[in-house]
Amino acid sequence: MTLTRDTIDEIDSLKEKDALKKIEAIFFVSGRFLSMQELVSLSDLNPLIIKECINKLKEKYDGENSSVKIIEKNEMWKMDVHQDYYYLINKLATGESEFSKAEQETLAIIAYKQPIKQSVIIKIRGNKAYDHISKFFGLGLVKKKKQGHTHILNLSDEFFNYFNVSEDENLLEKKLFNKQENQEIKEEN
After folding, report:
1. How does pLDDT run across 66-91, given as a tens digit for each residue?
2. What is the pLDDT of residues 127-176, one digit of tens each?
3. Is 81 helix (H, G, I), strand (E, B) or coil?
4. 54 pLDDT exceeds 90?
5. What are the start-end ranges of the E strands in the chain?
């Protein structure tokens, strides 16, 4: 059997399609930003081929007017949902299957009051909050820094990625809430 140009082109086309499917599957399953090094390690593909696949996936999703897109941030990539559909994702991510109501309340306090001492959270929420904080830390949503006998808790970058919000949005909501809270206090006096 001799290799013809058509046979070589067909083999190349199959390899390209396979590479594209690998990268798409990796993005689909990961749900987070991945560096080129991680993509190479997971796919065993050349960085140039990966870059080409990423560009083709971007074109594919943009061209299909899809609810899914490939986004890039600091030379890292992830598959995400268009902003128009974040409300659906947030419903799923904050649903009871993901976090209990008590866990949601603990996470909300951390998000609102950060940086906050773990001991303060425990005083507010009770001893069960230790389990909540451990879960959040395990998921990478919260960062801990040892300070004396307690930890200082802050939201991690993963929190903002996980819930599809930016730090700017979080700060804006916090400022608006503080402004409203201060107005209510003034009205009471």
Report:
1. 888 898 888 899 998 887 777 777 66
2. 999 999 999 898 888 999 999 999 999 998 888 777 766 655 444 444 44
3. strand
4. yes
5. 34-35, 68-73, 76-81, 116-117, 142-147, 150-155
Crossing angle for the helix pair 5-30 and 47-63, nearest 10 degrees? 80
Give the 3-state secondary structure of 27-43: HHHHCCCEEHHHHHHHH
- Domains in the chain with CATH codes: 5-81 (1.10.10.10), 90-180 (1.10.10.10)
How many other C-beta atoms lie within 10 A of the C-beta of residue 128?
13
E strand map for 16-112: 34-35, 68-73, 76-81
Nearest Cα residue to 180 out of 115, 119, 112: 112
With 0.70 as the threshold, say if the pTM is over it. Answer: no
